[in-house]
Amino acid sequence: MHNFDTIVIGGGHAGCEAAAASARIGVNTLLLTKHITTIGAMSCNPAMGGIGKGHLIREIDAFDGLMGVISDLSGIQFRVLNRSKGPAVQGPRAQIDRILYLGNMQKALKEQKNLTIVEASVNDIIIENNTICGIRCDQGEYFCNSLILTTGTFLNGVIHCGKNTTPGGRYGEAPTTTLSKRLKKFDLTLSRLKTGTPARLIKESINFELLEAQKGDTTPEPFSYMSNKIHVPQTVCHITHTNEETHHIISNNIRLSAMFSGNITSTGPRYCPSIEDKIIRFPEKKNHQIFLEPEGLNSDLIYPNGISTSLPEDIQLAFIKTIRGLENAQVRRFGYAIEYDYVDPRELDHSLSVKKIKGLWLAGQINGTTGYEEAAAQGLIAGINAARHSRGKKLYYIDRSDGYIGVLIDDLVTKGVTEPYRMFTSRSEYRLSLRADNADHRLTDTGISLGVVGQERKKSWKLKKSKINQARSSLHELTISPTEARRKGLKINCDGKKRSAFDLLGYPEINFKDLEKIWKKLENINLSTRKTISAEATYCRYLKRQKKEIDNFKKEESKKLKPNFNYDLIDGLSNENKDKLSKIKPRTLGQAQRIDGITPSAISLILSHMRNSKGAEF
Fold it and tell me: Minimal CA–CA distance to 15: which of 364, 450, 349, 397?
């Protein structure tokens, strides 16, 4: 018999973070994967981060997660997106060397205490009295208190290229077929989603001289708060475009695409559509941008980001050769679409545990999301909670006012999905507070209290927090009159009131360099501290207003609802509202308000019932 506290099935980005988080908390954890050599593999594009996604990586890092650190060890081009805009919507992004990332992730997991890695295929889940007991695989039985499924696109995965269909969870790898049947037996709602990938091009066959080069930032900004500098050599990407001839070939063969032939009926990601989708949905556009992304410093492959497709191979080659710089392009592997099963995330609570099966957690694309970052964020939370469940501790729920991870989970479990879910900053009501620069301020102390943050990061964070508090205090204490400030060359209003150095930072045309000319002592403040305090000063007035909004949100979230409450008892509540509330089982009144179709009048009826029952039923 093999006994573990937590078992994680799947070695993708969700599985890696789940296993590492559970092990960091100190419980005996097993990571079970079909192929140890593919742990941490980047199945699609060789990049991490971006707007919203970069915020998620910073939040994972604030909990001492792996994705940020591993990306910094493997990144070959770093850029901060939206740098010209406000700090709330700036997002770190990096091109990643696939081989470096995979190797660095596997090394980190192999060195992780309390973690065992086993190569095996899962045949069944052992469940007794609706409670997880363990799993059966080709090597025997493994028993546990908590089980986390992170099956990605492997759950009944089918690969499509033109009319050809092949069972597969990823190119060259077999799907997982038995788990879907097992989950359906427990009355879980499963459906199908689709994603896709472009062809992989041989680097030497591309004429880069015809193309626009896209360089990274002069000084690369790491993802992890623990990384002081990027040591990996940096490289460039290139940009090209489709054209009318490209579109003509695709349009004339559109019915040969798996997406339009009827072979695929499920929904794909709206914000990362195939080239066929783009041409059908935007017929007025004469070209579409393509980013030619190197798959690694020593790789001979280029990933053409922007032309994901499920057209037949000969049609793919024909349209690729019409693109500037790709006239002589050679293809190592053609693009394809993949359909897979996912579980309706409304079957989960905010800890990502399945409501109907005690001790079972789901994380990643099995919950209807798309992207490495969204998967890893879910894996982190599932790993924390699975470990806490194993120890009999209270589960951790992250609010949407605390982080983008909270927004992601709340959106999933409250609204469900009709297409693969992708994170954007626009999904949050509190994005001025939830910035990429301050994720550790928001979450690391919580991570320490949960026991998921290691000693090295804990020590580093305490030092950083002390420096920021000191710098903030100094900026508030240093004052100057408007007249003197203008004499020093600062353009501010002369209304007679003294300004603090912090106030001055709130002016868009004033930065730390300007303040150093007045107060030399400010030269000692480091770049990271400057970035955070500058953002606070810029948004100062708005943050005060947003804090009130967050306080109101917290009040609604503090009004707890029992998950087994019978909503049929509330007179006047429509049958539709009763059905939705009974299915989702909102944890709080605030969550009930965010369920699609739940009206303000329905919330008033719930509140009235709560008052009349004096909370006895809630």
Answer: 364
Range of lowest pLDDT (30-34, 214-218, 539-543): 539-543
The sign one gets for the Cα dihedral 490, 495, 497, 502 is: negative
The yes-or-no verdict on residue 616 having pLDDT over 50 is: no
Residue 1 pLDDT grade (very low, low, confident, very high; cuts 50, 70, 90): low
CA 484, CA 498: separation in Å to the nearest integer?
A: 10
CA 104 to chain centre: 20
Q: Which of 236, 246, 245 is nearest to 216 (CA)?
A: 236
Instruction: Return the structure tokens found at 357.
Output: 């099966």
Output the six-digit token pair for 586: 């909102």
- Residue 614 confidence (pLDDT): 61
Q: How far is the C-alpha of 505 from the C-alpha of 54, rounded, in Å? A: 25
When pLDDT is averaged across residues 319-339 and rounded to a whole number, the result is: 97
Place of tokens 């650190």: 69
What's the mean pLDDT in 489-502? 84
> What Cα–Cα distance (Å) separates residue 590 from each residue in 140, 352, 410, 551, 606?
45, 18, 11, 12, 12
Which residue carries 């007794």 as its tokens?
128
What is the DSSP annotation of 538-575?
HTHHHHHHHHHHHHHHHHHHHSB--TT--GGGSTT--H
Residue-wise pLDDT tens digits, 549-607: 999 999 989 999 988 889 999 989 999 999 999 999 999 999 999 999 998 889 999 98
CB count within 10 Å of CB 615 equals 10
CA dist., res. 568 & res. 19, Å (int): 41
Span 94-103, mean pLDDT? 98
Residue 476 CB coordination number (10 Å) = 12
Q: What's 267's DSSP letter?
A: B
pLDDT exceeds cutoff 80 at 466: yes
Going through 198-347 in order, the beta strands assigned E by DSSP cover 200-202, 212-214, 237-241, 289-294, 301-305, 331-333, 336-343
Residue 462 neighbours by CB distance under 10 Å: 13
Question: Residue 180 corresponds to which tokens in the numbers above?
Answer: 């879907």
- Residue 385 to residue 383: CA distance in whole angstroms: 6
Is residue 477 exposed (0-12), middle (13-18) or buried (19+ Cβ within 10 Å)? exposed
Name the pTM for this structure.
0.95
Cα–Cα distance measured from residue 504 to residue 609, given in angstroms and rounded to the nearest whole number: 51
Burial readout 376-388 (b: 16 or more C-beta within 10 A, e: otherwise): bbbbbbbbbbbbb
* Cα distance between residue 15 and residue 153, in whole Å: 13
Count CB neighbours of 321 within 10 A. 16
CA distance 245 to 247: 5
Q: Is residue 126 predicted with pLDDT exceeding 90?
A: yes
Q: Give the CA dihedral 181, 186, 191, 195, nearest 10 degrees.
A: -70
DSSP 210: G
pLDDT of 496 reads 75
The dihedral through the CA atoms of 59, 65, 67, 72 has a sign that is positive
What would the mean pLDDT of 91-96 be, rounded to a whole number? 97
- Distances from the Cα of 208 to the Cαs of 61, 222, 293, 516, in angstroms? 36, 28, 12, 44
